[in-house]
Amino acid sequence: MEFLLEVIGFNIESCTLAQEAGANRIELCDGPGEGGTTPSYGFIKAARKKLNIDLYPIIRPRGGDFLYTDDEFEIMKTDILVCKKLGCDGVVTGSLNADGTVDKRRCSQLVEIAFPMGVTFHRAFDRTKDPFTALEDIIECGFERILTSGLEPDAMQGASLIASLIEKADERIVIMPGSGIRSDNIGEIANRTKAHEFHTSARINSKSRMDFLQQRLKETLQSVSVDTEEVKKIRTILSAL
Description:
With 241 residues, the protein is of the alpha/beta class. The protein contains eight helices and ten strands. The chain has one domain (4-240): Copper homeostasis (CutC) domain (TIM Barrel, Alpha-Beta Barrel), CATH 3.20.20.380. The strands form three sheets. Strands 3-2-1-8 form a four-stranded parallel sheet, covered by helices on one side. Strands 4-5-6-7 form a four-stranded parallel sheet, with helices on one face. The termini are close together.
C-alpha cells in the first residue's frame, strides 16, 4: 500500500522544508494558535511558486467554532476562488449547523465553487454529534477526504472510531487521521486504522533570529516551524509498513 503524508505549513520556510523531507501534500495555514486559519494571498502565491507537491490551503475565516455568518461564508467563497486562480490543488474547509450537523447546503456550494480542485473536510468533523451521519452527509456534498482525530483530542485515542469510519466509508471517501501523529505512534495508528493518508504538523518552536530583543516586553518571539527529522522518520516508517 502506498501511504501519503500531509504536513501543515504555517510559514513559507516550513513548506519547503516539509517538501524536502518527504511530504506529499501541504495543508497551508495561518494562525497556529487558533488551529489554523486562511492564509494570505501572498502566502498562497509564494507557496504555489515554491512547491511541486500538492497544495491545499485551509479556508477558515477565523478561529473558534464552525458556525459561520453570511458575511463569513461570502469570505470563504471568495478565498476558494483565490486558491483556484493561484493554481492550488485543493482546499480544506467545512461548515456546521448549530445543532452539530454538517451544513450540507453551504458545504455543497463550497465544493461546487472549488471544482475542479479537491476538497478536504477538516476537523469540524470532530465537532459533529453523530460521526456516521456526518460521514454520509460529507460524501453527499462531494468532498474527497475527511481529516479527523476520531472525535478525540488526538488520533491515537480516536483510532477505533477512525477504523470504523474507514470501514463504513468503503472507499467512497478518504478518511485521514490527524492530530498528535508523530514518529513514535504512526506505525500503531496505521495498523489500527488501516488508513493510507496521514496528517501531521511535526511542529517545533523556532527561536527568533533577531540579534536585539526588547527585554522589557518579556516575549520570546518564537515562531512555529516544522521538524524535518520528524517528517523524515514518519516517512521512513510508513515506507516500511
